[in-house]
Amino acid sequence: MTHRKRFKYLAVVMAVAFVAAACGGGEEPAPTTQAPATTQAPATTQAPATTEAAATTEAPTTTQAAMAEPAAVALVVNQRAGDLGPIDDLIEGLEGAEADFGLQTTFIEATDPSTFETTLRNLGNQGTDVVAVTFPPMSEALAAVAPEFPDTRWIHIFGAPLDLPNVVVVGFDYYKGTYLAGLLAGALNTTGKIGFVGGVSIPPLNADYNAFVAAAQTQDPAITGDAAFADSFEDPAKGRELGAALFDSGADILMLDGAATDLGVIQAAEEKGGFVIGGSENYFDSETVIAGVLLYWSTVLYNQIENALSDDYTPGYVGAGVAEGGVDMVINPMFMENGPAEMVEMITAAMPLIDDARDQIRSGELEVPYNPEL
Description:
Blueprint: E1 72-77, H1 86-101, E2 104-109, H2 116-125, E3 130-134, H3 139-145, E4 153-157, E5 167-171, H4 174-188, E6 193-198, H5 203-219, E7 224-229, H6 236-248, E8 253-257, H7 262-272, E9 275-278, E10 289-295, H8 297-308, E11 316-319, E12 327-331, H9 333-338, H10 341-363
Parallel strand pairs: 1-2, 1-3, 3-4, 4-5, 5-11, 6-7, 6-8, 8-9, 9-10
Antiparallel strand pairs: 10-12
């Protein structure tokens, strides 16, 4: 596996073992220094040259240059860095914003829920201009602290909607991406069974699994699915165990939705001769990874930091799904070059179906059901 550049910590890292709910991330193209005027979804199955997720209708005018001192921007995550997925991608987004806007940045791992409010309150008391936090477990703390610091602009990545005048919440419809993955898995399936390994069984991940299986069954109604959850987004050993069990039970293709836990599932695929659809382009160097359902974490954070620094700052909820360019299913180009010839041919044959479904999701013609129940 390739390892990505790690962010140089500018704050004391708070790390106590606790795993929070999140989805796998994808490696984004480098964001532009100005937010796009409109939201443009990727045009092909390959990762776009730029991802314009979560853009406002007008490019904000950044006020950073007019500030006497660099703006202070903090990223607080409730999972550990080094996952080759969402956390590492968010760090890249913070790094890009730091470089382009001349920011004073802070990165904090706050993995103990009992520290969430204190961590956010400390940043508010320090006069931090912009604070980005991650994932649903931090929603309650953010809702409690944000009103105390109206001059701080808060960004909640993949969080519950909050109706506060100084908070932007970014939501990802990841299940629409796993629907595209299910179409691919259904077209490739040879055993009548597919599988899914997730971090924690929560409504968004349950919906990811259901969409994956439902799409596969449009190709063959006899296909069955099986879901397994590691109860952790940071347990590759458990991922390896669950992946091996699913392959042994007859599943030939697994959808991964477990952040760092996915690394163990990929290892199981390599050992068992199975295949996976992962959650990050960082996994594409494995010969078992057919494709990835990617979230463009880095670009979304970068754009929302720029929004927060802008005179045209707009709070509220921002959607980032397939239609908005924040989620997509991307074929692994290395697999297409080096994978088994018969599978490459099957993938090529399936691409018009997947491209058509993507277009229908973007136009609204295809409404993928959100089913959070297992």
